[in-house]
Amino acid sequence: MSKKAMITAALASSAIIAPYVLSTEKVEAAALDMTIFHTNDTHAHVDNVGQRAALVNKLRTENPNNVLLDAGDVFSGTLFFNEFYGQTDLKIMNYLGYDAMTFGNHEFDLGLSKDGHNKLVDFIKGAKFPFVSANVDFSKDEKFTGLQTQAVTDQAENGKIYNGIIKEINGEKVGIFGLTTEETTAIASPEKVEFKAYLDSAKETVAAFEAQGINKIIALTHIGYDDNAMMDNDQELAKKVPGIDVIVGGHTHTELKQPVQVVNEETEQPVVIVQANQYNKYLGQLDITFDDNGVVADYMGQLHLVGQKDEAGNYVLPSDKEAEALIAADVKQVQNKMNAETGADAKVFLSGLRGLGGVRAGETNLGNIITDGMLDKAKEIDKDVVIAFQNGGGIRSSITKGPVTYGEVLTVLPFGNPLAIIEVTGDELYETFEHSVKEYPKESGGFLHVAGMEVLFDPTKKAGERLVSLKIGGKEVDRKANYKAATNVFTARGGDGFEALGRAYEEGRASEPGFSDWENFANRLIELGDVTQQVEGRITTTTTFKDITTANWFYPYVARLQVAEEGQAPVFKPLEKFNPQKTLTRANVVLMLTRALALEAKNEPTYDDVKNLEDAELKLAIAAATEAGIIKGSNGKFKPFDPVTRKQLALMYERAYQNIDANYQAPKATFSDINHLDAEAQQAIGFIQDKAIADGNGGKYLPASYTTRAHAAKMFANFLYTVEQFKQQ
Predict the structure, then answer these.
(1) What is the spatial distance between Cα 209 and Cα 134, in angstroms, rounded to a whole number?
(2) Does residue 535 share a domain with residue 559?
(3) Rounded-to-integer distance, Cα 430 and Cα 434, Å
(4) Domain check: are 525 and 641 in the same one?
(5) What angle do CA 590, 592, 596 make, to 5 degrees?
(6) Each residue of 605-621: b (16+ CB within 10 Å) or e?
(7) For residue 33, what is the domain's CATH number?
(8) Where is the SLH domain (predicted)?
(9) What local confidence, expressed as pLDDT, does residue 133 receive?
(10) pLDDT value for 603
(11) 3-class secondary structure per residue, 10-54
């Protein structure tokens, strides 16, 4: 056995903490042109495998000096994972010939299951490619014995884990190493698997490559493009760690349509960052040129849409039938499971959307139903349980209108997190919910949905001082009292950074009855039968309006519309009065639409009664809405301060939506009082009914009636909800 082989065998026998090098041969580097193909955060989305394979194979053939890399989070997200635990994805990855993968946080989701990380071990062992992971230590979990060698190597074996690997591309050596977010300990269930500081691990691994003369280095990371710089951040990595040339990233699901260049603070050399969004929607491509010194001399990147179609609606590339056949049996099994109905019928869209007002930054009807089911089951076990809360990061999908299947239930809650009952003090509840809302209006996987509670907070205050009111059963929480709460085991153990809950768990104040989250959710849906739930004001923000209170039925909608994502204008400005009973005007509607949809005018308005308006924002808003086809006016006038009828409101909303989804065709509305209206008005009202923007009254739409600002807030919030549904589908 050669000395090199002896070293390899010795290191493979146990996990080694130091960043060893498995070769002492130093290479002479030269210039190189190569292509990096990349995916990330695919989350068990395999439905378009034939198109994905066709695209990968075509582009790899056209660009022979290439590597194909995955930046983690193959696990969790659809029923394919619940049924096959990554094996369907692995069939595809092996078929496509991936060169390396790093681990995402979701690869560690099953640590709390009765079999621990057995499914991850099976995934690793079955891979026809190596894994790179410089800051993850598997040595304390015996399930991984013999799989990890904490070193960089040019002799990587398939189905094994290394700090980094050395690939030869067109005669040149290229180093590839992996990093996983340190937050995995808080947002997944790694158990005995440990995570080291990402910057320190990166520096050690780069040094190990450079010791072998490797000067072209790719970091394959699952730390996020713009996440917490202290724990995980690709841009920080590029700035702080000299020697890295390319970062192929994941974790934040960022759609980087073009590569981003960051200059390293020490070397002042460029580092190129790429990331390809999520769910196998894109295949990333980075064409890159290195000079003789291993410095990036030129690059060009793009995201290829998987399943691109021509104008006739046909795929541009013929699907790869061999790839489709590989997983055909899996697809059939999942379809059968997906199609089994629960007995519940969703009469409204149940929102698992992302963004402001979605599951990670707001109350949703889906979050309410999930926590209601959790509370129901907990009360069966312990009658003293009074509240329940669910982390928004654990809600992974939405449910469309219609009969609800078990497949949809499992896709919403794919992790199978078991129920926990935990006893906490009022003080600990305050700490918990301050943590829940600290990032708002930014998203947070730790944003909590609630049952049995009402949460009111002020997002203008600094984190840790935002809670205004915390009520249980309509009464303010007593900070010194004890309360029993239902949640999932992940959250009870302090997941997502809930330190107060983690302390309570460690002190033995939690029990684990063991009922899976999706089962409790399904039972609640079945109990409801016809599911019509909307948001109820369980979680709301303060407003500047002095003439409304949280007791008003419309308060949650008004509060939502006074908050905006960073860089956007809120629909309602921070004024002292809302005037809820005042009649809505045409100007009001135009301002709401243009602010929310960020419409901008190219020209000045042409209406005679608008040209001389002193309100500059209103003038431009009217011009923008006209250019977008949302308003038309009459006889050269717009009449901005006239009250708007419900028919006119429907027309404006439907025209605005057509700008977003031009292919939408509204079904015929069932209201009894609209048959005399013209075809466009009937279609617009059909849109209003189909998208549950307004319900009407006693089977009538009342098209000639006016709308109060209170009712308009609800309608507009529902309209924005509809827009987000389309954008995220």
Answers:
(1) 12
(2) no
(3) 6
(4) no
(5) 120
(6) bebeebeebeeeebbbb
(7) 3.60.21.10
(8) 541-607, 608-667
(9) 98
(10) 92
(11) HHHCCCCCCCEECCCCCCCCCCEEEEEEEECCCCCCCCCHHHHHH
Clarify whether residues 568 and 697 are in a common domain: yes
Q: Find the domain containing 145 and state its range.
A: 3-326
On whether residue 332 sits in a domain, the answer given is no
Strands 246-248 vs 270-274: parallel, antiparallel or unpaired:
parallel
Same domain, residue pair 175 and 223: yes
Integer Rg of the chain from CA: 28
Ranges of the chain whose pLDDT falls below 70: 1-29, 514
Residues 6+ positions from 346 with CB-CB distance below 8 Å = 399, 400, 401, 402, 403, 404, 531
The count of structural domains within the chain is 3
**Chain mean pLDDT for the chain:** 92
What the block records as the tokens of 119 is 């499914």
Give the tens place of pLDDT for each residue, 524-551.
999 999 999 999 999 999 999 999 999 9
d(CA 634, CA 180): 60
**For residues 494 and 505, is the Cβ–Cβ distance under 8 A?**
yes
* Distance, CA of 183 to CA of 297 (rounded, Å): 34
Q: Are 390 and 377 in contact (CB under 8 A)?
A: no
Evaluate whether residue 336 is within a structural domain: no
Span 584-618, pLDDT tens digits: 999 999 999 999 999 999 999 999 999 989 999 99
d(CA 474, CA 141): 47
Rounded Cα gap, residues 619 and 606, in angstroms: 10
Q: Do residues 106 and 225 share a domain? A: yes
Contact 79, 334 (CB under 8 A): yes
- In sequence order, what DSSP letters do the residues of 461-513 get, joined into one string? SPTTS-EEEEEETTEE--TTSEEEEEEEHHHHTTGGG-HHHHHHHHTT-EE--
Cβ contact 122:85 at 8 Å: yes
Residue 457, classified by CB atoms within 10 Å of its CB into exposed (0-12), middle (13-18) or buried (19+), is buried
